[in-house]
């Protein structure tokens, strides 16, 4: 290519690269407060909704003007908007940023915004504007794993598996992580079926283990819940991908074996106690109740409460 042409080619490539980095459309003047033909983007365009604590939520996905905006113009507008919200006494700003508008994260961070949480297609950044240290609540703190202790009262046998992906092959109850919006008992029943082929129904909640800095929870806290399930199918057809072995074992053998985890051993002893003395000694049963304000329902787990105590009005 002749040197002159090469020079103009380089300029075009550099200009295109600059646009790509800034995320601006072809009509934008980089670094300006908007674009040459459209009106400048100002603080008033960052419209937000007020929440009951006095914070402002701005959802970038709902602002059409952002499509034609570069990050520098966004930063100017956000800085002016934050100044305005601060002077009005707002306590916090929440920025909801769709993943495809992530070019606005860095300018917001340079003004003091931090990540609050992220979902698969968006992130939420927050900035505390109130007096003193931030009082904004954090996001999710735990992952929830649920196992099913499937116990057949007719034979005294319990369903156990050995995990294929573990270094030590210990007997444990089948189980796995809860899905968003899934009830604890439903997770136990689903995981038991997926891993062993056994169909069962929820009876009670037996134990909860809380462990912090859990390696399997990406360094967050892990809540591991064990449920008592009643089987209604008995032929094992276990998942070769996750399990090495699966069998119905005498509960008394599981209590005795050393080849198990401390939590499985403890819950096996708890089950044996319930089997001998009555499951009401160990069961936290579940009841569905209406939430007061939201119109939703929730599940409450506790030791069985006699009916006359449920309906009593005072010191009856
Ligand atoms: N004390 C005990 O007896 C044990 C308790 N647990 C608890 O059980 C719960 C989790 O159960 P799991 O059976 O582990 O979960 P799970 O049954 O939901 O999923 C396990 C499967 O997910 C996949 N997987 C998980 N992490 C992966 C990664 N980083 N990359 C690729 N694939 C991955 C693998 O295919 C693995 O076989 C946790 O709450 C944990 O604390 C887990 C093992 C033993
Ligand atoms: Mg599992």
Automatic annotation (TrEMBL):
Record-linked InterPro entries: Nudix_hydrolase (IPR020476), NUDIX_hydrolase-like_dom_sf (IPR015797), Nudix_hydrolase6-like (IPR003293), NUDIX_hydrolase_CS (IPR020084), NUDIX_hydrolase_dom (IPR000086), Pre-Nudix (IPR040618)
EC number: 3.6.1.-
Residue ranges of every copy of the Nudix hydrolase domain listed in the record: 141-273
Keywords recorded for this protein, A-Z: Cytoplasm, Hydrolase, Mitochondrion, Nucleus
Localization (cell): Cytoplasm; Nucleus; Mitochondrion
Keyword Acyltransferase: no
Gene3D superfamilies: 3.40.630.30, 4.10.80.100, Nucleoside Triphosphate Pyrophosphohydrolase
Subunit structure: Monomer and homodimer.
Its biological purpose: May contribute to the regulation of cell proliferation.
Stated family: Belongs to the Nudix hydrolase family.
Protein name: Nucleoside diphosphate-linked moiety X motif 6
Taxonomy of the source species: Eukaryota, Metazoa, Chordata, Craniata, Vertebrata
């Amino acid at each position: 290519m002749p040197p002159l042409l090469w020079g103009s080619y380089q300029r075009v490539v550099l200009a295109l690269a600059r646009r790509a980095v800034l995320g601006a459309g072809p009509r934008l003047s980089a670094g300006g407060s908007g674009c040459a033909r459209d009106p400048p983007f100002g603080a008033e365009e960052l419209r937000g909704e007020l929440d009951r604590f006095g914070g402002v939520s701005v959802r970038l996905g709902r602002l059409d003007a952002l499509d034609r905006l570069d990050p520098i113009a966004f930063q100017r507008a956000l800085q002016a908007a934050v100044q305005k919200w601060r002077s009005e006494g707002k306590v916090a700003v929440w920025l909801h940023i769709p993943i495809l508008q992530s070019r606005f994260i860095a300018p917001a961070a340079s003004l003091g915004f931090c990540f609050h949480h992220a979902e698969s297609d968006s992130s939420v950044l927050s900035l505390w504007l109130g007096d003193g240290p931030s009082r904004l609540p954090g996001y999710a703190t735990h992952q929830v794993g649920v196992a099913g202790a499937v116990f057949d009262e007719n034979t005294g046998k319990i369903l156990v598996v050995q995990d294929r992906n573990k270094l030590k092959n210990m007997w444990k109850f089948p189980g796995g992580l809860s899905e968003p919006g899934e009830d604890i008992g439903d997770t136990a029943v689903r995981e038991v079926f997926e891993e062993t082929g056994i169909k069962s129904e929820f009876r009670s909640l037996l134990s909860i283990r809380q462990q912090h800095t859990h390696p399997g929870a990406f360094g967050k806290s892990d809540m591991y819940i064990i449920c008592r399930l009643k089987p209604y199918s008995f032929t094992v057809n276990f998942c070769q991908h996750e399990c090495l072995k699966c069998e119905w074992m005498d509960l008394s053998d599981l209590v005795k074996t050393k080849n198990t985890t401390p939590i499985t051993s403890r819950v096996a002893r708890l089950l044996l106690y319930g089997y001998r003395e009555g499951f009401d000694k160990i069961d936290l049963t579940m009841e569905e109740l209406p939430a007061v304000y939201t119109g939703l329902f929730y599940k409450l787990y506790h030791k069985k409460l006699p009916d006359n105590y449920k309906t009593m009005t005072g010191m009856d």
